[in-house]
Amino acid sequence: MKLIPFLSLLSLSAAFCSVANAQTITYKADTTVKADTIPATQPEEKVDGNRTIKYYETLPSDSDNRDEPERHYYVKSRSRSRSDIKTLSGSLNHSGGFGALSFRATEFRGQPMVLGGVRGGWIVNRSLGIGLEGHGIVPTAKFDDIDPQNRVVAVGGYGGFFLEPIFFSNQVVHITFPVSAGAGWLGYVLDWEDYGGTNRGPNVSQDNDVFWYVEPGVDLEVNIARNFRLDLGVSKRFTQDLDLAETTEKDFNGINYFLTLKVGGF
Question: Which residues, if any, are the signal sequence (predicted)?
Answer without folding.
Answer: 1-22
